[in-house]
UniProtKB/TrEMBL annotation:
<protein>
    <submittedName>
        <fullName>SDR family NAD(P)-dependent oxidoreductase</fullName>
        <ecNumber>1.1.1.-</ecNumber>
    </submittedName>
</protein>
<comment type="similarity">
    <text>Belongs to the short-chain dehydrogenases/reductases (SDR) family.</text>
</comment>
<dbReference type="GO" id="GO:0016491">
    <property type="term" value="F:oxidoreductase activity"/>
</dbReference>
<dbReference type="InterPro" id="IPR002347">
    <property type="entry name" value="SDR_fam"/>
</dbReference>
<keyword id="KW-0560">Oxidoreductase</keyword>
<dbReference type="InterPro" id="IPR036291">
    <property type="entry name" value="NAD(P)-bd_dom_sf"/>
</dbReference>
<dbReference type="Pfam" id="PF13561">
    <property type="entry name" value="adh_short_C2"/>
</dbReference>
Length: 249
């Protein structure tokens, strides 16, 4: 396990499958883990693991920034690691592009991109003063090509998250801060991904698995291991990188 002990770690969307797996990974290394989510059940799971949790609607960017300030205040120090994991499709499914409403578009952009912008902006002040820090953004295969979900705003937001990753890496590298992204392939984590997977049918599922070099779907732990590596000192000369964790395509 890469060294992340005693670090102050903040994870958005901590109540999701990836969020909980990432939290377990950091907790097992002795980190002080804080997380936020809008889902009380997920937050309760994270609290039971030993995380400090807060209910925050990350579409509200001032509220997102205020949560970072509270974490820093409570811990009495700058955040060492920020994981921008909150995101997803906000309960949406593919619609013809001419039928996509402004509200649906804005929600997906806000949770996948706006939240990462606000949380990073808030955390980078303390990281800059400390002269160190790491941000890991959870992107997607939909950041690199069209999304299997067919949701235009999701692909757009995840592509833009890579732009934010590279730009912040460039701007904050001189301050000792690294910014990287993990791009997971499909992992069955919730009702939406379960429904997506079942929708492919047997032949479609075989075709997807046949296109993956390692011939399996990923797990939340696969993603968590990549995140903890990028956050750790083992990756201390890696920044602005996009690490696909998809079994090879
Ligand atoms: N599961 C996959 O196949 C897959 C693949 C690629 C990328 N991802 C990305 O990984 C991340 C985690 O996904 P997941 O599959 O674990 O489950 P998920 O998509 O359900 O996770 C999203 C988490 O963010 C939280 N969230 C959503 N909107 C929020 C808001 N407005 N305020 C606060 N929290 C909010 C949700 O409650 C949930 O806990 C997401 O960014 C997702 O886009 C997932």
């Amino acid at each position: 396990m890469p060294k992340v002990d005693r670090r102050l770690v903040a994870i958005s969307g901590i109540g999701s499958a990836f969020g909980l797996a990432i939290a377990r990974r950091f907790l097992s290394a002795g980190a002080n883990v804080h997380g936020c989510d809008c889902d009380p059940a997920g937050l309760a799971e994270a609290a039971a693991l030993g995380c400090h949790v807060a209910e925050v609607d990350l579409v509200d960017r001032p509220a997102a920034r205020a949560w970072i300030a509270r974490v820093e205040h409570d811990a009495g120090r700058a955040i060492d690691v920020l994981v921008n994991n909150a995101g997803g499709v906000a309960g949406q499914s593919h619609q013809r592009f001419d039928r996509v409403s402004d509200a649906d578009w804005d929600t997906v952009i806000a949770v996948n991109l706006g939240a990462a912008m606000a949380l990073s902006q808030a955390a980078l002040g303390g990281m800059t003063r400390a002269g160190r820090g790491a941000i890991v953004n959870i992107a997607s295969g939909a950041a690199l090509r069209a999304s299997m979900t067919g949701i235009q705003a999701y692909a757009t937001a995840k592509h833009a998250l890579l732009g934010l990753t590279r730009q912040l890496a460039h701007e904050f590298g001189p301050h000792g801060i690294r910014v990287n992204a993990v791009a997971p392939g499909l992992v069955i984590t919730n009702a939406a991904t379960q429904q997506q997977w079942q929708g492919y049918g047997d032949a479609g599922q075989d075709a997807i698995l046949g296109g993956i070099a390692l011939r399996r779907l990923g797990t939340p732990d696969d993603i968590a291991r990549a995140v903890s590596f990028l956050a750790s000192d083992d990756a201390d000369f890696i920044t602005g990188e996009i690490l696909s964790v998809d079994g090879g395509r």
